[in-house]
Amino acid sequence: MSHARSDARRFLHDSDTVRPLMDMNKTLRFGFSSSHSRALVALLAIAGASLSFGALTACSSGDVPVGSTSQALQKNKSGTPTGDGTSCSWDATTPPSGSYAVGATFKSPDGCNDCSCTAQGVACTLRACAPPPGGSSGGTCSYGGQTYASGASFPSTDGCNTCSCSAAGQVLCTELACAPLPAPGPAACKKTGCSNEICADHDEASPCVFSPTYACYDTATCERQADGQCGFTQTPALQACLAK
Fold first, then answer.
1. Rounded CA gap, 34 and 44, in Å?
2. Which of 82, 89, 172, 181 could join 121 via S-S bond, C-beta 3.0 to 4.6 A?
3. Residue 217 contacts residue 197 (beta carbons within 8 Å)
Protein backbone atom coordinates (compact mmCIF):
# COMPACT_ATOMS: atom_id res chain seq x y z
CA MET A 1 0.00 0.00 0.00
CA SER A 2 2.94 2.34 0.72
CA HIS A 3 4.12 1.81 -2.88
CA ALA A 4 0.67 2.78 -4.13
CA ARG A 5 0.74 6.04 -2.08
CA SER A 6 4.18 6.87 -3.45
CA ASP A 7 3.03 6.18 -7.01
CA ALA A 8 -0.05 8.28 -6.37
CA ARG A 9 2.03 11.25 -5.17
CA ARG A 10 4.13 11.11 -8.33
CA PHE A 11 0.95 10.76 -10.33
CA LEU A 12 -0.63 13.81 -8.64
CA HIS A 13 2.41 15.95 -9.43
CA ASP A 14 1.93 15.26 -13.13
CA SER A 15 0.01 18.33 -14.28
CA ASP A 16 -1.20 16.60 -17.46
CA THR A 17 -2.76 13.89 -15.31
CA VAL A 18 -4.08 16.01 -12.43
CA ARG A 19 -5.70 18.75 -14.54
CA PRO A 20 -8.61 16.64 -15.82
CA LEU A 21 -9.07 15.16 -12.34
CA MET A 22 -9.23 18.65 -10.83
CA ASP A 23 -11.81 19.60 -13.39
CA MET A 24 -13.73 16.50 -12.35
CA ASN A 25 -13.35 17.60 -8.72
CA LYS A 26 -14.95 20.95 -9.52
CA THR A 27 -17.84 19.22 -11.23
CA LEU A 28 -18.31 16.75 -8.40
CA ARG A 29 -18.58 19.57 -5.82
CA PHE A 30 -22.07 20.30 -7.00
CA GLY A 31 -23.32 16.87 -5.97
CA PHE A 32 -20.85 15.72 -3.29
CA SER A 33 -19.19 17.14 -0.27
CA SER A 34 -15.64 18.42 -0.72
CA SER A 35 -14.25 15.59 1.40
CA HIS A 36 -16.04 13.01 -0.73
CA SER A 37 -14.83 14.53 -3.96
CA ARG A 38 -11.24 14.76 -2.75
CA ALA A 39 -11.37 11.11 -1.71
CA LEU A 40 -12.73 10.12 -5.11
CA VAL A 41 -10.00 12.08 -6.93
CA ALA A 42 -7.33 10.46 -4.77
CA LEU A 43 -8.80 7.01 -5.43
CA LEU A 44 -8.78 7.67 -9.17
CA ALA A 45 -5.19 8.90 -8.92
CA ILE A 46 -4.07 5.73 -7.15
CA ALA A 47 -5.85 3.53 -9.71
CA GLY A 48 -4.40 5.54 -12.59
CA ALA A 49 -0.91 5.40 -11.16
CA SER A 50 -1.18 1.67 -10.69
CA LEU A 51 -2.28 1.20 -14.29
CA SER A 52 0.36 3.59 -15.56
CA PHE A 53 3.25 2.07 -13.67
CA GLY A 54 1.94 -1.46 -14.30
CA ALA A 55 2.12 -0.77 -18.05
CA LEU A 56 5.61 0.67 -17.63
CA THR A 57 6.76 -2.46 -15.83
CA ALA A 58 5.35 -4.70 -18.55
CA CYS A 59 7.14 -2.72 -21.28
CA SER A 60 10.44 -2.41 -19.47
CA SER A 61 11.25 -6.11 -19.70
CA GLY A 62 12.06 -5.99 -23.40
CA ASP A 63 15.72 -6.66 -22.71
CA VAL A 64 14.90 -10.35 -22.17
CA PRO A 65 14.89 -11.93 -25.67
CA VAL A 66 12.20 -14.46 -26.50
CA GLY A 67 14.37 -16.09 -29.19
CA SER A 68 17.78 -15.39 -30.64
CA THR A 69 18.53 -15.01 -34.36
CA SER A 70 22.27 -14.40 -34.01
CA GLN A 71 24.40 -16.89 -35.93
CA ALA A 72 27.87 -18.31 -35.34
CA LEU A 73 30.31 -18.95 -38.18
CA GLN A 74 31.01 -22.65 -38.73
CA LYS A 75 34.21 -24.39 -39.84
CA ASN A 76 34.91 -27.73 -41.46
CA LYS A 77 36.24 -30.59 -39.33
CA SER A 78 39.71 -29.86 -40.64
CA GLY A 79 39.43 -26.25 -39.43
CA THR A 80 39.21 -24.79 -42.93
CA PRO A 81 36.65 -22.04 -43.74
CA THR A 82 33.26 -23.12 -45.05
CA GLY A 83 33.00 -20.25 -47.56
CA ASP A 84 35.06 -18.76 -50.38
CA GLY A 85 33.12 -15.51 -50.84
CA THR A 86 30.73 -16.85 -53.48
CA SER A 87 29.60 -20.23 -52.15
CA CYS A 88 29.71 -22.44 -49.05
CA SER A 89 30.75 -26.05 -48.57
CA TRP A 90 30.40 -27.58 -45.12
CA ASP A 91 31.37 -31.19 -44.44
CA ALA A 92 28.57 -31.46 -41.85
CA THR A 93 25.89 -31.06 -44.53
CA THR A 94 26.19 -30.63 -48.29
CA PRO A 95 23.37 -30.27 -50.85
CA PRO A 96 23.17 -32.56 -53.90
CA SER A 97 24.76 -29.78 -56.00
CA GLY A 98 27.85 -29.93 -53.79
CA SER A 99 27.75 -26.39 -52.37
CA TYR A 100 25.42 -23.61 -51.21
CA ALA A 101 25.20 -20.24 -52.94
CA VAL A 102 25.65 -17.11 -50.81
CA GLY A 103 22.22 -16.20 -49.44
CA ALA A 104 20.94 -19.80 -49.30
CA THR A 105 19.29 -20.91 -46.05
CA PHE A 106 18.97 -24.46 -44.74
CA LYS A 107 18.55 -26.48 -41.56
CA SER A 108 21.48 -27.39 -39.35
CA PRO A 109 22.30 -31.14 -39.10
CA ASP A 110 20.65 -31.09 -35.65
CA GLY A 111 17.33 -30.45 -37.42
CA CYS A 112 16.58 -27.53 -35.11
CA ASN A 113 18.88 -24.58 -35.75
CA ASP A 114 18.86 -22.47 -38.90
CA CYS A 115 21.89 -21.89 -41.12
CA SER A 116 22.70 -19.60 -44.00
CA CYS A 117 25.54 -19.25 -46.48
CA THR A 118 27.36 -15.94 -46.11
CA ALA A 119 30.40 -14.51 -47.88
CA GLN A 120 32.47 -15.61 -44.84
CA GLY A 121 31.03 -19.13 -44.75
CA VAL A 122 28.19 -21.10 -43.14
CA ALA A 123 26.62 -19.37 -40.13
CA CYS A 124 24.13 -21.13 -37.83
CA THR A 125 22.00 -20.20 -34.83
CA LEU A 126 22.97 -21.78 -31.50
CA ARG A 127 19.60 -22.50 -29.93
CA ALA A 128 19.30 -25.29 -27.37
CA CYS A 129 17.18 -27.90 -29.13
CA ALA A 130 14.82 -30.42 -27.62
CA PRO A 131 15.79 -34.06 -28.25
CA PRO A 132 13.92 -35.66 -31.16
CA PRO A 133 11.00 -38.03 -30.42
CA GLY A 134 11.91 -41.60 -29.62
CA GLY A 135 15.39 -40.72 -28.37
CA SER A 136 17.06 -40.97 -31.78
CA SER A 137 20.36 -39.23 -32.37
CA GLY A 138 18.65 -36.53 -34.46
CA GLY A 139 20.24 -34.85 -37.42
CA THR A 140 21.77 -38.09 -38.76
CA CYS A 141 20.45 -41.36 -40.16
CA SER A 142 22.02 -44.79 -40.43
CA TYR A 143 21.04 -46.78 -43.50
CA GLY A 144 22.71 -49.57 -45.42
CA GLY A 145 25.83 -49.33 -43.28
CA GLN A 146 26.23 -45.61 -44.02
CA THR A 147 25.54 -42.46 -41.95
CA TYR A 148 23.75 -39.55 -43.61
CA ALA A 149 23.17 -35.97 -42.41
CA SER A 150 19.70 -34.50 -42.08
CA GLY A 151 18.37 -33.44 -45.49
CA ALA A 152 20.61 -35.81 -47.43
CA SER A 153 19.17 -37.96 -50.23
CA PHE A 154 20.50 -41.39 -51.16
CA PRO A 155 19.41 -44.46 -53.16
CA SER A 156 17.37 -47.20 -51.55
CA THR A 157 18.92 -50.62 -51.15
CA ASP A 158 16.39 -51.95 -53.70
CA GLY A 159 18.29 -49.98 -56.36
CA CYS A 160 15.10 -48.26 -57.51
CA ASN A 161 13.60 -45.98 -54.84
CA THR A 162 15.12 -42.86 -53.27
CA CYS A 163 15.48 -42.20 -49.54
CA SER A 164 16.14 -39.11 -47.44
CA CYS A 165 17.17 -38.39 -43.85
CA SER A 166 14.61 -36.35 -41.89
CA ALA A 167 15.39 -33.79 -39.19
CA ALA A 168 14.20 -36.32 -36.59
CA GLY A 169 16.79 -38.87 -37.71
CA GLN A 170 14.32 -41.05 -39.62
CA VAL A 171 14.93 -42.63 -43.04
CA LEU A 172 12.06 -41.88 -45.42
CA CYS A 173 11.91 -43.72 -48.76
CA THR A 174 9.68 -43.57 -51.79
CA GLU A 175 7.61 -46.68 -52.50
CA LEU A 176 7.67 -46.94 -56.26
CA ALA A 177 6.85 -50.28 -57.87
CA CYS A 178 10.22 -51.32 -59.22
CA ALA A 179 10.88 -53.72 -62.07
CA PRO A 180 12.29 -57.05 -60.90
CA LEU A 181 16.02 -57.37 -61.08
CA PRO A 182 17.27 -59.51 -63.98
CA ALA A 183 18.17 -63.08 -63.12
CA PRO A 184 21.87 -63.56 -62.69
CA GLY A 185 23.62 -65.04 -65.72
CA PRO A 186 25.79 -68.14 -65.69
CA ALA A 187 29.03 -68.05 -63.81
CA ALA A 188 32.16 -67.10 -65.70
CA CYS A 189 34.36 -69.81 -67.03
CA LYS A 190 37.76 -70.29 -65.38
CA LYS A 191 40.79 -72.54 -65.52
CA THR A 192 40.73 -75.16 -62.81
CA GLY A 193 42.18 -78.59 -61.98
CA CYS A 194 45.58 -79.37 -60.51
CA SER A 195 47.46 -77.94 -63.51
CA ASN A 196 44.76 -75.57 -64.83
CA GLU A 197 44.15 -78.03 -67.61
CA ILE A 198 40.35 -77.87 -67.19
CA CYS A 199 38.02 -75.03 -68.26
CA ALA A 200 34.80 -74.91 -66.21
CA ASP A 201 32.45 -72.50 -64.40
CA HIS A 202 33.12 -74.21 -61.06
CA ASP A 203 36.10 -75.67 -59.26
CA GLU A 204 37.07 -79.19 -60.28
CA ALA A 205 39.73 -81.52 -58.89
CA SER A 206 42.03 -83.57 -61.12
CA PRO A 207 45.01 -85.89 -60.56
CA CYS A 208 48.24 -84.00 -60.12
CA VAL A 209 50.23 -85.70 -62.84
CA PHE A 210 52.61 -84.13 -65.31
CA SER A 211 51.85 -83.84 -69.01
CA PRO A 212 53.69 -81.65 -71.54
CA THR A 213 50.36 -80.67 -73.09
CA TYR A 214 49.28 -78.89 -69.91
CA ALA A 215 51.67 -76.04 -70.74
CA CYS A 216 49.58 -75.33 -73.85
CA TYR A 217 46.66 -74.24 -71.69
CA ASP A 218 48.71 -71.53 -69.98
CA THR A 219 48.10 -69.15 -72.90
CA ALA A 220 44.81 -70.69 -74.11
CA THR A 221 41.47 -68.85 -73.77
CA CYS A 222 38.95 -70.42 -71.37
CA GLU A 223 35.44 -69.23 -72.25
CA ARG A 224 31.89 -70.37 -72.88
CA GLN A 225 31.58 -72.06 -76.24
CA ALA A 226 28.76 -72.12 -78.81
CA ASP A 227 27.10 -75.07 -77.06
CA GLY A 228 26.86 -73.06 -73.82
CA GLN A 229 29.54 -75.07 -72.05
CA CYS A 230 32.90 -73.83 -70.81
CA GLY A 231 35.95 -74.97 -72.80
CA PHE A 232 39.25 -73.88 -74.28
CA THR A 233 38.83 -72.06 -77.59
CA GLN A 234 40.50 -74.21 -80.23
CA THR A 235 42.70 -71.68 -81.93
CA PRO A 236 45.33 -72.75 -84.48
CA ALA A 237 48.03 -71.97 -81.90
CA LEU A 238 46.44 -74.22 -79.28
CA GLN A 239 45.85 -77.01 -81.75
CA ALA A 240 49.48 -76.83 -82.95
CA CYS A 241 50.75 -76.90 -79.35
CA LEU A 242 48.62 -79.95 -78.50
CA ALA A 243 49.77 -81.75 -81.66
CA LYS A 244 53.43 -81.68 -80.65
1. 15
2. 82
3. yes
